[in-house]
Amino acid sequence: MCAHMLRKMVMVAMLVGLLVGMPRVAAADVVSPALILNEYNCVDGDEFLDGADSGKSDTFFGRVMGNGDNWIELVVVEDHADLRGYELLWLENDGDGNGTYVWDDAHYLDNQSQGKIIFSDAALWSDLRGGTIITISDKQTVDTEYENGTEVEFDLSTDTSYDPLAGDWTIHMSSRQEAGQANPLVTTLTNVDGDPAGAFSVGNSDWEMRITDGTTTVFGPIGEMGGGVFGGISGKEVGKLEADPTAFVDNDNFNDGTSSTFGAPNQWSGGDEVQDFSALRAAVPEPTAVAMLLAGLAAFGFLRRR
């Protein structure tokens, strides 16, 4: 073997020895959300979606005054997500806060009402499939009326008949109902004087939400305050994501709108654009005919309660 080749082999051996002996450096932890805000209702209790005579309606509630009252819609954007301990932190600059902050941040003013919704350690939240839709209403029953004056009552009781393998991708929480349970699935805190247990607020007066994993903000803020990229939501509109749901959306992808789809993919541009959940749900096999039948029967029972 020539001396030149021998020197190269010795150098390679020395380099390998150095690399093997070096301490391993862990890659920096990258915090990404397993859960994002998708839509929230800003329609005032005495208004209709897009105002009088517009004909606009929500795909679930129909055309009713208040558009279902206080509700938010979330989407799971990580497969097999564990949401135990996740927190939804909201504020609204409507002047009715009492200054006792449930959560704090140096740039918020004293007159901002604030609160949080905390996911419990229940097994329900421990393994959610990507593409799951979670809706949360602060009421268990919503009494309202259609545009023609006919009164209607919606039962928004907690529903956990969740089974993606059978085609059921939705979970619904009534935060006030949960407040009365021995082991609530969500716990709601608020500093608004006079609010009952389980109440939270959603509205068009500089409202925003951020999501944490219990310690670190993983998504947001989304809304008109700290995020501030989009604004101008009126009391006749909803705030919503106008893009396919992923972990990488931000305020630039949100907008005010007059189409509303409680518990279903968002629509915009007059219904020409609809969210696509197929990428998020691709890991779950399509339901069989038997599974779809069972899911249909379960859904029928759920709708009958409404």
Layout of SSEs?
Layout: H1 3-21, E1 35-41, E2 71-76, E3 87-92, E4 113-119, E5 133-137, E6 141-145, E7 151-155, E8 170-174, H2 175-179, E9 186-190, E10 207-212, E11 217-223, E12 238-241, E13 254-257, E14 267-268, E15 273-274, H3 278-281, H4 289-305
Parallel strand pairs: 5-8
Antiparallel strand pairs: 1-2, 1-12, 2-5, 3-4, 3-10, 4-9, 6-7, 10-11, 12-13, 14-15
What keywords describe this structure?
306 residues; alpha+beta; 6-stranded mixed beta sheet; 5-stranded antiparallel beta sheet; 4 helices; 15% helix; 25% strand; disordered C terminus
Gist of the model:
With 306 residues, this protein is an alpha+beta fold. The chain contains 4 helices and 15 strands.
What this model shows, in words?
With 306 residues, the protein is an alpha+beta fold. It has one domain (31-305). It is built from four helices and 15 strands. Mean pLDDT is 82; it is low at 1-29 and 302-306.
Weakly predicted, low-confidence segments: 1-29, 302-306
Order of helices and strands: HEEEEEEEEHEEEEEEEHH
Number-wise, the strands total 15
Radius of gyration (Å)? 24 Å
